[in-house]
Specification:
alpha+beta
Length: 657
């Protein structure tokens, strides 16, 4: 932490006496610290290390949503989101959210605001820029906390030791208004600054874009208040709003409009996540710059793939992926990527295309899809372009387009052969958690669940374009970036607010920009069979799937709140996956294990496939009560911190009841 740097700089002294009476150059008192432009800038730069809870290359917030399924690997709890998804927590064993660390950040931010404001030595432009960033990050931290607790105590200055630190919670409306006011102060100071921020720093456009995001959440919270879904369990009225949702939708719309037209969508979606110059993209508003020696904790390249062996191993060399992951895209997500019909050229759900008809795809009694065909991989061709940047599927390659050797191919099919006495990995595809038909009723667990259990692996941010001398892929993350804010969000934020403000034609235009970049053409309600509001939700889901930070889980929460739902269907059912059945070669020859028989070879059977609900106890999801919109405060915290009110529905609740 740069706060630690401050401590070091303020406290460092030379141990030896200075015979000339000159003050040691290693000693800097606090007052002079803030007169030094480089030190003041270094202090504020530290705020850029503050990340959103649930982000990072483990994509935790995606695992909480219906986009992704984690594993059940006992040693890697990061991917095993059993406690959170099953709601196995209460006030006696509360889920750990951003609390103590967040308030440490708030203290540092408030300290910066006070010292920078009071410094007469900093130039006016620099002071304005630093203050703009501090106000931005104060809103950033409180927004992260609001998503978990609804409302928290609001601290607007650096608390001293002699102050009462047991502050009451702010009303939720006031908390949102404070965040929006901070962003207005950020915008005001950026205007005074008038200069150009360096790439990677927040700027006035980031402040406007983030304001549109915060205002959308506030609008949904205001709508929830109007429906009274928390009223019965909110004795202090903390969740009651006086302003309407329309007030906040207007703020979101106006803020987004300030950025509309100043940026453009990157023509090639994949470039955003694989190019080492993506931070300079026409779509980039606030990129998080990455270098291995600075952010070694972010390495999707080493995580977004299987734990099994490569194909084409030899007796002298056996290569293993050893990715040991647990971020598996669900069939629910994959179903949202439209496919171009080979006959009429229309974009449709994959199961409605002529390709699906040729594969005899039908919906069974359980509502799932079944099909059969030698060319079953046709279901993955000519999809929405975002699909190929987000999902690794059966038959795709973990390599660049120039090196699609068989060794790098991913195959997630399941062997239909049953050979109880001889069954080994040589008879099955190497990249699935299921090894034979007999194991289908049992959930893959432990190390086996690091192989995909949905039929898919995540791909975004992965750079499969460099090779070691032995031919294995170099798993080092490339110098790249991810985006805390990019222009696509501005378009979709503006579209969402515009729909609510009865500006549907304008909203459709923004949504069509997103669709056109994905290659799927303009929205057609008659063809899509849903309205523009649902289309906006789908586009947010597809556009930001498996990004850092994630949106899907918290989007589902805020939309559910606004609709007054006590159950969110997407979060109250198990994930779905796909199972593909083929016959593997029965051979002990090195390099042939995990290889499927091809048409014309002896023993070949036409592949079949089916989508499935993954209704194993390990992978259950639960959201059937309004209490789950927020996490509880622990009872030990409440005993000491009597000014806090337990969140609605958690008081006295025990998850094992």
């Amino acid at each position: 932490m740069w706060a630690g740097l401050l401590t070091v700089l303020l406290g460092s002294t030379m141990t030896a006496c200075d015979p000339l009476g000159i003050e040691p150059t290693t000693k800097v008192d606090e007052d002079r610290f803030w007169t030094n432009p480089q030190l003041a800038r270094a202090y504020v730069n530290n705020l850029y290390l503050i990340g959103s809870t649930g982000s990072g290359h483990t994509f935790q917030s995606e695992q909480w949503s219906d986009n992704c399924q984690g594993n059940y690997e006992q040693d890697w709890d990061t991917y095993r989101q059993l406690t959170f998804n099953n709601r196995r927590y209460d006030e006696t064993a509360a889920w750990s959210g951003p609390w103590s660390g967040a308030y440490k950040n708030i203290y540092n931010i408030n300290k910066g605001i006070e010292k920078i404001t009071g410094s007469g030595s900093l130039s006016e432009p620099l002071r304005a820029q630093l203050l703009a960033e501090c106000y931005f990050f104060r809103a950033w931290v409180y927004f992260d906390m609001e998503k978990f607790w609804g409302t928290v105590p609001y601290v607007d200055h650096a608390l001293s030791l002699d102050e009462d630190t047991y502050l009451p919670q702010a009303k939720r409306e006031q908390l949102f208004d404070n965040m929006l006011a901070d962003l207005d102060k950020s915008i005001e100071n950026f205007t005074i600054y008038g200069g150009k921020s360096e790439i990677g720093q927040v700027n006035i456009d980031a402040a406007y874009a983030f304001k549109s995001r915060v205002a959308l959440y506030a609008a949904d919270a205001a709508a929830a208040s109007a429906k009274g879904i928390f009223r019965a369990n909110d004795p202090a009225g903390l969740f009651t709003f006086e302003k309407t949702d329309a007030h906040y939708y207007q703020l979101a719309y106006d803020a987004a409009k300030k950025v509309i037209g100043k940026y453009a969508l990157e023509p090639n979606y994949a470039t955003l996540f694989t190019s080492e110059t993506a931070h300079t993209s026409v779509e980039s508003i606030w990129p998080v710059l990455f270098k291995p020696n600075q952010r070694e904790g972010f390495n999707p390249t080493a995580k977004n793939g299987p734990d099994g062996n490569y194909y084409e191993n030899s007796e002298s060399l056996t290569l293993s992926w050893s990715m040991r992951t647990g971020t598996f895209p669900t069939q629910d997500l994959v179903d949202c990527y439209l496919q171009k019909d080979a006959k009429d050229g229309q974009w449709k759900p994959w199961w409605k295309t002529s390709q699906a008809q040729e594969l005899n795809v039908v919906r069974n009694a359980d509502g799932e899809f079944e099909g059969k065909g030698d060319d079953y991989r046709e279901i993955y061709k000519n999809r929405d372009q975002r699909f190929y940047s987000t999902v690794t599927y059966d038959g795709s390659y973990m390599a660049n387009e120039k090196n699609q050797a068989p060794r790098y191919q991913i195959q997630t099919w399941i062997d239909t052969t049953t050979m109880v006495s001889e069954r080994t990995l040589q008879y099955s595809a190497l990249h699935t958690g299921y090894r034979s038909q007999e194991t289908l009723e049992t959930a893959p667990v432990n190390r086996g669940s690091c192989q995909t259990i949905t039929g898919y692996y995540s791909r975004k941010y992965s750079h499969f374009d460099s090779y070691n001398d032995n031919g294995s892929l170099d798993m080092t993350q490339r110098t790249t970036c991810y985006f805390n804010i990019r222009y696509a969000e501005v378009l979709l934020n503006c579209a969402e607010a515009a729909i609510k403000l009865n500006k549907s034609s304008e909203a459709e235009g923004y949504i069509n920009q997103i669709r056109q970049r994905a290659g799927v053409g303009n929205f057609n309600q008659a063809l899509e069979e849903h309205n523009l509001w649902e289309e906006m939700k789908i586009q947010r889901r597809l556009e930001f799937a498996f990004e850092c930070p994630g949106f899907r889980y918290f989007d589902l929460l805020r939309w559910g709140e606004a609709e007054g739902l006590s159950e969110i269907p997407e979060l109250n059912r198990v994930s779905r996956g796909i199972q593909i059945f083929r016959v593997g070669k029965h051979s002990n020859v090195a390099g042939e294990n995990g290889v499927a028989l091809e048409k014309g070879e002896e023993g070949y059977m036409t592949p079949t496939f089916r989508t499935i609900p993954m209704d194993y106890s390990y992978y259950l999801r639960k959201f059937d009560n309004t209490r789950y919109y927020f996490t509880p405060f622990s009872d030990t915290t409440l005993r000491d911190y009597k000014q806090l009110q337990q969140n609605p529905g958690w008081n006295g609740f025990r998850f094992d009841n």
